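During the no-cost extension, the postdoctoral fellow (Dr. R.K.) reprocessed legacy sequence entries with the updated structure-token encoder. One reprocessed record is reproduced below for audit purposes.
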Amino acid sequence: MIDKNLSEEDIKHRYITPAIENKGWDKKHVRMEFAFTDGRVIFDGNVHDRKARKRADYLLFDQHNQPIAIVEAKDASKPVGGGMQQAIEYAEILDLPFAYSSNGEAFIEHDFITGKEATIAIDKFPTPDELYIRLMNHKQLTLAQQDIVDTPFYSDAYSHEPRYYQRIAINRTVEAVAKGQERVLIVMATGTGKTYTAFQIIHRLHKSGAKKKILYLADRNILIDQTMTQDFKPFKKFMCKVKDGKIDTAFEVYMALYHQLVGKDGEPDPFLKVKPEYFDLIIVDECHRGSAKDDSAWRKVLEYFKSATQIGMTATPKAETGANNLDYFGEPIYTYSLLQGIQDGFLAPYRVTNSYIDLDLQGFTPEEDEKDIYKKIIEQRLYQQKDYGRDIAFIDRRELVARRITKMLHSIGRMTKTIVFCTDIEEAEAMRQLLTTMNADLCQKDSRYVMRITGDDNVGKRQLDNFINVDEPYPTIVTTSELLATGVDCKTCGLIVIDKEIGSMTEFKQIIGRGTRLRTDKGKWHLEILDFRNATKKFKDPDFDGDPLPPTKPRKEYPRGEGGGEGGEVHEPHVKYIVDGKPVTITTEIVSVLGEDGKTMRTESVTSFTKKQILSHYSSLDNFINEWTSAEKKAAIVDELKELNVLVDAVRQKNPALAEADIFDIICHVAFDQPALTRRERANNVKKRNYFAKYEGKAREVLEALLEKYAEHGIINFESADILDHAPFNQIGKPQKIVRLFGGYDQFNKAIAELEQEIYKVA
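Re-encoded structure tokens follow.
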């Protein structure tokens, strides 16, 4: 019988690990305490912390270095299946076929292939070959298909392992292609590594010999250039960029813009120069942007090479209007959403400031024969927010928006990379001028502090690379209308300003996607959104992060703007009135962040969140105090609090009055409204009670020094196993000598326990 007092770590060490290793699972195929998420970022103001990472006790890999099973361990007091629900949850996230739970007595196996569970003796854990054969028998792959599926990921000294969701997307796609699926759709949120995923798919299919000639299609030059110099760099020797419609047959991987393959002004299409079967794999990047539309000039490229396997990649498969991705590519083979990315800690959470302007709420009706600044008579009608910037613009409103942007930058950091989305190019230029004037001190240091980057301005576009470069401070603020709404990878963009109407969910998600990347090494922990148009109401729309839906209505087509395909659509030509002398104010502002449910916006602070997490585990103050004082090691309680996402350090940072408070006092103060004592105050209280009177000489000196260590550094340092090896204790003697001062280890440990009781004695 197993000792029921054995901890989870004891069970792992004595029973589970040997049981697994004895069945042929060598160390390189077993990963213990495997973290597969980074832990969601929690923030309050500029204070940041992370929730606990999701960790598998054991993650088992097959001979092809693919994860195949998960094992969750429990201490001896728990039933053998005590960890099964967690094992199932993690296995589903990781797309694994087998899940196990054990308390050291036996294993419970959950087989996702059959849906059955079974009890397995502790010495009968399946071998690597047994699990692999069971999986392959289920998949029913031919030998040729299996060779493709088993082709390893690209790896070198400079590469990194795929994240769990990238691995799933890659594996599912490679298997689907190996089985002959002709079209595949992958949906991954902006900032989650679509290009890296595409690279690994191409590598495995090319390395296996399944695909020999690959075409990577995008609709923006910058997307091609970024891809070639970053994720696709290992293809350098056999990769080329299609220029002037010329397809050099000496290469194997081709990077091309759609419009480079389509003839201009009635000229023959360049893609006709090669046979329809020339390419056997086509990757369609950002496929929501038009390639799949039935009437698109670009669609004929895909139809000409219809014998090739075609893989579409997008962050926004839903199309209320426009490109019908789902009809063309079919249902996504895998979806990883923005909210999943935020929950996992791979993407930046966002804080929304909704600014409501009185003029926007009231609307504007001109007086009869009222003229704008250019002496044009303003058409008599009610102008509303949707018209501002397009049909009519107010100089005072522009100035108000520019002042609010400047104020926010003073609050969050003036060197925060910022994108200001304006209604059109004219508004983008006006906003550039205003922001330049209001930030003249920084513009004096570098004129690029504020720039307009739109498709019609080559000077601005030439600075785009500098803007997205994480190591280049300038440009810092860019104004735009459409050009930066999609495809531009600006990893350190920390502020997005919306002062334009956002018509579709696709456009909204793409705009938000410009700021979803985390770069904590550069100080980018979250995204600020300053919204003057209430566009962020779309966060509340169930379609924002729900299942993909097909289009519901045809799209009205407008002439292309901002550089003939380098930007988005613009409205048909029209008259715009510019009005001065209409004072405006911000009537109210609402600041909110994404709630824990991933659906609603909340205003909860770090402190409030921490209180909620504590109360979810400790029912009362007495309950917490009893657990704390009875714990043999306070470090165990602290570790448990971390698992509960109790953000003690963030709370301490947010509340300067708690800077010197003990962890115990922070918990009591935040969750149970108790006054918080500092560590020094607790130490002084022990001295006042004359606790040390029963000790003499060196023994008393040791205890007094221990109390001082607590006052300076806290209880974790106090409980450190090697504390006696360091000053001032090493000046008294070696640890063995110190222990003898108290009459042996038992008496020494008793003295330490009593001192802890004194420290936490409630007055």
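The chain has a mean pLDDT of 86. The two ends are 45 Å apart (CA to CA). The remaining legacy entries will be reprocessed before the final report is submitted.
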